Amino acid sequence: MSFLSWYLAILVGGLTSGWFCLESTLLTLAISATAVSFYHNRTTQNARRMFLASILYLPVIMSGLMFHRLCDNWHSSLD
Fold first, then answer.
1. What is the CB neighbour count within 10 angstroms for residue 42?
2. Which long-range contacts (CB under 8 A, 24 or more apart) does 36-42 make?
3. What is the pLDDT along the chain (79 residues), one digit of tens a residue?
4. Which residue in 41, 44, 46, 17 sits closest to 31, CA to CA?
């Protein structure tokens, strides 16, 4: 659940749009569901599903962060 507060802080900080917060929350809930599924039923199939979800999680989150990034003007202030 700490990831959800991190995504909310990114939204409030003005780095991304509200869509990122929604999408990252859904993705976090999905990976949490795979973890709970694996915890309750430790099969090879659930282990593979959890492994794949953990590999895909960070690149998908970072891609969403870049896609939903709000424009910043800090480059122009350096000149």
1. 10
2. none
3. 556 666 666 666 677 777 888 888 889 899 999 999 999 999 999 999 999 999 999 899 888 888 877 766 555 555 5
4. 46
Q: What tokens does 36 get?
A: 């709970």
Contacts of 47 (CB under 8 A, 6+ apart): 38
Quote the Cα angle for 50-56-62, to 5°.
140
Distance separating alpha carbons of residues 32 and 2, to the nearest angstrom: 12
The answer to whether 65 touches 21, Cβ cutoff 8 Å, is: no
In the prediction, which pLDDT does 16 show? 78
